[in-house]
Amino acid sequence: MKRIISVLILFLGLNVFAQNIPKIMKTEFPEVALQDTLITSDGDSVTIKEVFSNYKGKIVLVDLWATWCGDCIKNIPALKTLHEKNPDVEFVYLSMDKTPEAWKNGIEKYNIVGQHFYMGNNWKGAFGTSIDLNWIPRYLVLNQEGKIADYYSVKADDPKVQETINSLRKK
């Protein structure tokens, strides 16, 4: 009996930390989510809507990450490979680091090329809630109109990411 209880506790404990794949794969951001603010590398405030509107007409890969996230760091080589294979894609990084200093140090330390914004440890903000954020890294691919083409990927080398980018190029 103790063994069964131990196994159940272990199973339930692991599920607490597991990713929950969203049941609905959304294609648009609600307006309230787009009003969440980010900090630029220059220290200015900007809304997510303003950031995304800068990339109209382009394919965008959005990476939600943090320097404290082991899975995020492990994905950096695959992310760089993805970037090299897709120079026409805009890479936008939204950091969930606990401090701006950790965020800026991480960009430099890991030599991450792209557009960087700090959103802080804001999992439960309007943006995080709207995309069912429960794990990082999390990758979203936006189409040329700013709509979500790939809603849920947690690995940069997930074939679905490249397939989505390829399909958007054909449009």
In words, what does this structure look like?
The chain has a single domain (about 20-170), classed as Glutaredoxin (3-Layer(aba) Sandwich). It is about 40% helix and about 20% strand. It has seven helices and seven strands. It has helices spanning about 1-15, 30-35, 50-55, 70-85, 100-110, 125-130, 160-170; strands at about 35-40, 45, 60-65, 90-95, 115-120, 140, 150-155. It has a seven-stranded mixed β-sheet with strand order 2-1-5-4-3-6-7. The chain is globular and about 40 Å long. It starts with a helix and ends with a helix.
Features:
171 residues, alpha/beta, Glutaredoxin, 7 helices, 7 strands, cytochrome c-type biogenesis, Thiol-disulfide isomerase or thioredoxin, isomerase activity, Redoxin, Thioredoxin_domain
Summary, kept brief:
Helix content is 40%, strand content 20%. With 171 residues, it is an alpha/beta fold.
Task: Determine Rg (CA atoms, Å).
Answer: 17 Å
Classify the secondary structure makeup into a structural class.
alpha/beta
Compute the number of structural domains.
Answer: 1
Global shape: globular
- Number of distinct beta strands: 7
Low-confidence stretches: 5-17
What does the main sheet amount to? 7 strands, mixed
Instruction: Based on the coordinates given, report the CATH architecture.
Output: 3-Layer(aba) Sandwich
Give the spatial strand order of the biggest sheet.
2-1-5-4-3-6-7
Gap between N and C termini, in Å?
A: 59 Å
- CATH topology descriptor: Glutaredoxin
Query: Class in CATH?
Result: Alpha Beta
DSSP helix fraction:
25-40%
| Proportion of beta-strand residues | 15-25%
Spell the H/E element sequence: HHEEHEHEHEHEEH
Give the number of helices.
7
CATH superfamily: Glutaredoxin
Name the average pLDDT. 89
Subcellular location: Cell envelope
GO molecular function: isomerase activity
Main location: other
GO cellular component, one term: cell envelope
